[in-house]
Write a structure and sequence with these properties.
It is a single chain. By secondary structure, the protein is α/β, with parallel strands linked by helices. The protein has helices at 15-22, 42-50, 61-69, 116-127, 143-152, 162-170, 193-198, 200-215, 223-230, 235-244, 254-266; strands at residues 2-8, 31-37, 56-60, 74-81, 86-92, 107-110, 136-139, 157-161, 174-181, 187-192. Strands 2-1-3-10-4 form a five-stranded mixed β-sheet, sandwiched between helices. Strand 6 (107-110), helix 4 and strand 7 form a beta-alpha-beta unit. It starts with a strand and ends in a 19-residue tail after the last helix. This is Substrate-binding domain-containing protein.
């Protein structure tokens, strides 16, 4: 058995991986796939990839593009979720803020610098014609930290995936003022250069198993109920999320990669645009 480490957020997007592991689909191919949840999100996962504390990750596109451009020895293997991510813009339930426009010049809670919550705050600022240099941040590590920060007034707002935070909205802990979708496919499967260079055959098996599960995922009987129960979501919310979400097994296109880089450069988060082969894994046949 070949042990392979993979990390991702503890969210409904990643259920195909868990089903494949639980049903022994990877083990049948001689792969012991070891999944670890990383509730801190993309910034933490970039660090783990850079330190080679994992082999693979399911990670946000904008975060890994920024990290690779800064020297992280990692490549994008393929798209995982080809649809945009819907980022909810949340305030504390008792907050005086009633609209997104009122958040200008206020402090954003972020899981850590380089995370999706950090980078999307800039995308949202651009969307609303705010000056990116006026943004300020409070690092809260994870969703629990965001609840504390918004409740105590240490930060004004927090951007996190719409459906993951929906239970907190339903419970009256957060209020959602609106949404900001990513302008690109949201989740990528990535791997460290060291792992990819040494394990092309193993990777092919992993991709084949993954495609089997993602291509049939929406047709699994009562999968919406399974997701709702497993992730403590309302069934109607899961059904809405599934209608918006598309899995993919194709590589990220160079034009889309270019758009991500261009956007990050415009926001002052990248210094220069790099060639596609700095980012995209190309197996040697």
């Amino acid at each position: 058995m070949k042990s392979v480490k993979i990390i991702g957020v503890p969210e409904h997007f990643n259920l195909p991986w868990h089903l494949a592991i639980e049903e022994g689909a990877f083990a049948e191919r001689g792969i012991d796939l070891l999944w670890e949840d990383i509730p801190e999100g993309t910034g933490k996962m970039c660090q783990l990839l850079e330190n080679e504390e994992t082999d693979l990750a399911i990670i946000l596109t904008e975060g890994i593009v920024k990290s690779i451009s800064e020297g992280n020895p990692t490549k994008i293997i393929q798209q995982y979720i080809a649809s945009p991510l819907l980022w909810g813009i949340h305030v504390g339930a008792k907050s005086d803020f009633l609209s997104i426009s009122e958040l200008q010049n206020s402090k954003a809670a972020i899981s850590r610098f380089g995370s999706g919550s950090h980078l999307m705050a800039y995308v949202n600022a651009q969307k609303n014609d705010w000056k990116p240099e006026d943004l300020s941040f409070e690092v809260v590590n994870n969703l629990e930290g965001a609840v504390t920060a918004l409740t105590n007034g240490d930060a004004a707002y927090f951007m996190w995936e719409h459906f993951t935070t929906k239970p907190l909205v339903d419970e009256g802990i957060f209020r959602r003022l609106g949404d900001c979708p990513t302008p690109w496919p949201c989740f990528m499967l990535v791997g460290t250069d060291r792992f990819l260079d040494a394990n092309a055959g193993i990777l092919t098996h992993i991709q084949e198993v993954l495609e089997t599960y993602t291509s049939e995922f929406k047709s699994i009987p009562s999968i919406d109920r399974t997701l709702a129960n497993r992730y403590e979501q309302q069934l109607s919310d899961i059904q809405e999320w599934m209608a918006l979400t598309e899995w993919s097994s194709t590589q990220l296109s160079e034009p889309t990669l270019g758009n991500v880089q261009d956007t990050l450069i415009k926001l002052g988060l990248l210094k220069e645009k790099l060639p596609a082969d700095n980012f995209l894994y190309a197996p040697i046949n």
